[in-house]
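#help-structures

NK: newbie question. if I give both the sequence and a SMILES, will the prediction place the ligand too? trying with flavin mononucleotide
OV: yes, paste both and it writes out the complex. here, I ran yours:
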Amino acid sequence: MKLETTLMGLSLKNPFIIGANPWTGKISKLKELEAAGASAVVLPSLFEEKIYLENYKHQEFLHEFDDLHAEMITQHPDTTYAGAHIYLHFIKLAKAALDIPVFASLNALTPDTWIHYAKKIEEAGADGLELNLYHTAKEPNRSSQDIEQEQLQIVQQLRSEIQIPISIKLSPFYTNTLHFIKRLEEIGVDGYVLYNRFFEEEINTDREVLTFPLRLSHGTEYTHAMKTIGLLYGTVKGDLIATSGLHTTESILQVLLAGASAVQVVSLIHKKSPKVLETLIEEMTQWMDQKGYGSLEAFRGSLSKKNLRDPYAFEREQYIDLLLKGKVL
Ligand SMILES: Cc1cc2nc3c(=O)[nH]c(=O)nc-3n(C[C@H](O)[C@H](O)[C@H](O)COP(=O)(O)O)c2cc1C
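OV: that's the protein plus ligand as structure tokens.
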């Protein structure tokens, strides 16, 4: 009761959501996560590349796409889903197996794919759709404005086509995230997942080759999201969902105090086990008891910019004093 929260119009028993990752792509793991206390789950993303792969497989007799097909397999060898059909079927299986809300996740690149598959995801029974607006800067000739405009058009089109709640999982690398979110608000997005975390190349200096290690997050990576949430709380209708580097009850309390409605955890459950959710629930309840808070609403956003009424709240990262003192933690 005490930890209940409302997210994008859905009632959640607590703020602990499991973000997209391979474990939410297995029914046995989903059940384990629900039993340990997860209040909702986000299925692994359906990647546009996989949709194409499936389509190309159907057309294999043409041999036209053999090279691309091979490239897809090399680039995405370990992705759980072979294609869209399995994904849509899996949504139905997950819904039948769980009592908690199930969000699907779509990671697409071109407008047609977003719209077509978002509709199918809605039909399959997902409680909400998380859109991963995946983009990394690779094209020197495209302006940020151009890229953002395309993303906004896709979301706009999607909003007019599906009724289930839509959240947008954002990259931390927008020049002005607050402005971009303001424009998503105008479209009627229901939630913002802050922030996506990228796996990036490293270089193996012995072999002198690029490598792609799958590194889990560190427990300090949440502060950028916390800051954005602190700045946005009370200024947007959509819910703010924190993710990346939330490994302790302490950091989760911090993002709730800044204004998050819920959090998504992934690395923590991989580093420990789903059972860690029980500890989070217990520790958060204890903290609330000690402070005399009867609900999350009693303290959510109390340290946001809006509630601090401090013109410099969450804006001091370059604060000269801090730099001059040079006290390192
Ligand atoms: C193994 C693994 C697979 C992931 N797969 C996806 C995915 O399919 N779609 C997505 O949007 N995020 C994916 N993520 C990112 C997580 O959902 C999450 O945003 C990120 O790991 C940050 O949270 P954390 O610090 O709790 O790990 C994945 C993360 C991991 C570790």
